[in-house]
Amino acid sequence: MRTDKIGDLTNKIGDFTDKIGDFTGEIGDLTDMIGDHQMIDFTFEVHEPNTRTQHKQVLDYKRANLEQMKEEFGSNNYEVLVSNKNAEECYVILTEKIATATELHIPTKRMRPTNNPPWFSQEIKRLINARQQSY
């Protein structure tokens, strides 16, 4: 399948260069009037995927097992873990411990994206709802 896409792209590039050749051949006689440069005009259409429709995973702190996290952090002997290490190595060890505990004891949930722009705050939503209820 990938080779088909590469082949299609190669064909499109070949067609594009053929068109450029035709275009430059047509205006080749006009170079005395416009100088030593030839103009090429083209448009690229780029379609970006809609990222708003994708769900994202977020941590669900309401269902977190904080007691087990406390026990896990309390059971580690941090003096042994960080002995003879510089500050950066200690930081890496600590962040790895936190990340591991988070993965084990805090579940995730899927969040639907909102269709609201970033400036559309809770206060604005409340005012709009109040206005609509008044009618």
Topology:
Elements: H1 2-27, H2 31-34, E1 56-59, H3 66-75, H4 78-82, H5 87-105, E2 108-111, H6 122-134
Antiparallel strand pairs: 1-2
Helix pairs in contact: 3-5
Structure description:
By secondary structure, the protein is mainly α. The protein is built from six helices and two strands, in the order ααβαααβα. Strands 1-2 form a two-stranded antiparallel sheet.
Summarize this, please?
With 135 residues, this protein is mainly alpha-helical. The protein contains six helices and two strands.
Strand order of the largest sheet: 1-2
Q: Biggest sheet, in brief?
A: 2 strands, antiparallel
User: How many E-type strands?
Assistant: 2
How far apart the termini lie comes to: 57 Å
Q: Give start-end ranges of low-pLDDT stretches.
A: 23-28
Beta-strand fraction estimate: 5-15%
Mean pLDDT: 78
SSE class: mainly alpha
Percent helix: 55-70%
What is the alpha-carbon Rg in Å? 30 Å
